[in-house]
Please model this.
Amino acid sequence: FSPSVLGTREHWDAAYERELQTFEDIGDTGEIWFGEESMARIIRWLEKHKVPLDSSVLDIGTGNGVLLVELAKSGYMNLTGIDYSPSAIQLSEKVREKEGMSHIKLKVEDFLAPSAELSGFDICIDKGTFDAISLDPSDAAGKRQLYVGSLCRALKPEGFFLITSCNWTREELLNEFREGKQLNRALCQRFEILEELPTPKFCFGGRIGNSVTALVFQRK
Model:
């Protein structure tokens, strides 16, 4: 991918500072990445597979925290959101307060340099964070490797990883997570794909494709 400001912390700090101000002014929670259907898709999968409501869930790059609120409304109780932008966490805290979801845990944390307690989750969810890392002007390939290593530490063996991406195809994500690199295989054997979730399709030049890819992996 070509480097982009979308891969920099400065961009997201500024973006969430604006969204925080907008929330304080008019109560608008801001953009929902990939739309409301992306959240419903994740919740449908969890419910279909009868994932227990007390499962520990980590939202990687939580932004405004709206996904966690929707999970809480669906009955999930053990929810954690992290973001490296302090403004994002401030916004998600205000959204949490507005919705009366005080049990949602929120923390300023860089997933590429995680603290020791960021481990042992049953479910890890990513909607766009891996995409942003892939656009980082400073060693994006190396940071993708750090991401996979952090995921190995954060997710329990047999835990589920749900990723939604607009930059990566199914095959490319399989290569990044299922195959992995030697360093990451030493951390955890592999991520095995379980399912590709249905996403909106488009037709261009007589060919049909997906604008978004959503996959479910299990850590082995």
Summary: The chain has a mean pLDDT of 89. Residues 26 and 207 are 43 Å apart (CA to CA). The chain has eight helices and nine strands. The first helix runs from residue 9 to 26.
